[in-house]
Write a structure and sequence with these properties.
This protein has 326 residues and is α/β, with parallel strands linked by helices. It has two domains: 196 residues, 3-Layer(aba) Sandwich (Isopropylmalate Dehydrogenase); 120 residues, 3-Layer(aba) Sandwich (Isopropylmalate Dehydrogenase), CATH 3.40.718. The protein has twelve helices and eleven strands. The chain has an eight-stranded mixed beta sheet, sandwiched between helices. A three-stranded parallel beta sheet has the order 1-3-2, sandwiched between helices. A hairpin with a 4-residue loop joins β5 and β6. α8 runs parallel beside α9. The longest helix has 17 residues. It is elongated. The chain starts with 7 loop residues before the first helix and ends in a 7-residue tail after the last helix. The C terminus is likely disordered.
Length: 326
């Protein structure tokens, strides 16, 4: 469902309409059927909806109607204006989706964006969607990956100021993130021997210490520990030469030291196709790489591209079948 006042409902309807051209595997929504029907009618989209009682009914229905496992909203939803009364339903949809994946009823979760401020009154006390899913799965440290067909990136430190990221960075943190990345590249992406490029923190990876000692003191020892664990890790590499086409051909994922170092290259390469993937969970979770977009909600102009990419990636990951906890 995501935030009912955002664009999640619209892009989900559009994804179903493009199911054939996009080659989408069957999916179903955890949402309020009345809300979705109103959205489709408002935009003039011919999307037949069919409610289901359990996940197993979705595949047979998907070709002719969009399956919906009902999660009723307590209050009417108005595009662009979040209503805190609907927060319990939003959280219930996430909890139910997690349960369905953990018990094998569903193969993966694809989450639409939430609006945290609207959820706090319902007891939401997590930094974001990812941390909530980790708590539901009893996982201490989830890892964020941004992925597209051309690049996969994982930031070791994420939503903190650059100064704090530098202060937070340790060899242990790099090693832990690298281990989770390598394990999930194998179990969820089907890469038997993943190759990981590890970015340096400083320009030119420190230039032998002339541009900072962190790469020699923190990053390089972490790379050696990953290699000692049997992981094909290379680095620290100069960040400014890691992301051109020839360099990307030499690795399966880039392990970056901070948020923008990872997200700038992938958003430059594939702004509309980037997918947020949560690693380190016992389930598969992907998400569009954008927010609720309240400013365009209800206008019928939202692009479903990132959601379609997230659905396709979730299906591809699920096809590898072997999902294990870390």
């Amino acid at each position: 469902m995501g935030e009912p006042a955002g664009i999640g409902g619209e892009i989900a309807l559009l994804a179903w309409l493009r199911r054939d051209s996009a080659g989408l595997a069957p999916f179903f929504l955890l949402d309020d059927p009345a809300r979705l029907a109103a959205l489709a009618q408002q935009q003039g989209w011919s999307v037949p909806l069919q409610t289901i009682a359990e996940a197993g009914e979705a595949a047979a229905i998907f070709g002719s109607a969009l399956p919906v496992l009902p999660v009723p909203l307590p209050a009417p939803s108005q595009p662009g204006i979040p209503d805190r009364r609907n927060a319990p339903a939003v959280l219930h949809a996430i909890e139910l989706a997690t349960t369905l994946c953990r018990n094998g009823s569903a193969a993966a979760i694809v989450t639409n964006p939430i609006h945290k401020a609207a959820l706090y009154d319902a007891g939401f006390n997590h930094p974001g969607h990812t941390e909530f899913l980790a708590a539901l799965c009893e996982v201490e440290r989830p890892v964020m990956m941004l992925a597209s067909e051309r690049l996969r990136v994982v930031p070791v430190t994420i939503h903190i100021a650059l100064r704090e990221a530098i202060e937070t960075l340790t060899s242990d943190l790099i090693v832990e993130t690298g281990r989770i990345l390598a394990a999930d590249l194998t179990s969820k992406f089907g890469i038997e021997k993943p190759r990981i490029a590890v970015a340096g923190l400083n320009p030119h990876a420190g230039e032998s210490g002339s541009m900072g000692r962190e790469d020699a003191a923190i990053v390089a020892p972490a790379v050696e520990r990953l290699r000692a664990a049997g992981i094909d890790a290379r680095g620290p590499l100069p960040p400014d030469t890691m992301f051109h086409a020839e360099a990307r051909a030499g690795y399966d994922a880039a392990l970056c030291m901070y948020h923008d170092q990872a997200l700038i290259p992938i958003k430059t390469l594939d702004f509309d196709q980037g997918v947020n993937v949560t690693l380190g969970l016992p389930i598969i979770r992907t998400s569009p790489d954008h927010g609720t977009a309240f400013d365009i909600a209800g206008k019928g102009i939202a692009k479903p591209d990132s959601l379609i990419a997230a659905l396709r990636m979730a299906a591809a990951m699920a096809s590898h079948a072997h999902v294990s906890s870390h």
